[in-house]
Amino acid sequence: MGEQSNNFYARLDRLERKHGAMSRGYTAKVGPDGLIVVAPRRVQSRISGRSLILFVAAFLLFKGFLMAALGFGSYDFRVDQLRAGTGLEKAGAFVMQRDPVSQFLAEKIGPVLR
Questions:
Q1: Beta carbons of 106 and 72 less than 8 angstroms apart
Q2: Where are the transmembrane segments (predicted)?
Q3: How far apart are CA 88 and CA 75, in angstroms?
């Protein structure tokens, strides 16, 4: 009797999870055998890969512009000052530290600014 009860509650749990997933949307498809199969709709991310790549590219361009405008010595000094601050400032220093891509961009932007 206990095993039947466990099977019943496991089936009930599966049905509740499926019902919750179906409440967010579903699709119905006809299989090759003529059976209509209803499945929950997949949740897609609101952030696309293209927008993420554009954000990273804009951020690297911004860092390159800052390096070109301030100069490498001044930029590194300011990042070192951030590194000596609070935890949030240390995280900002890690993100803003010099990297090869932004340094290359700064070297290309520098003559245009001067």
A1: yes
A2: 51-72
A3: 18
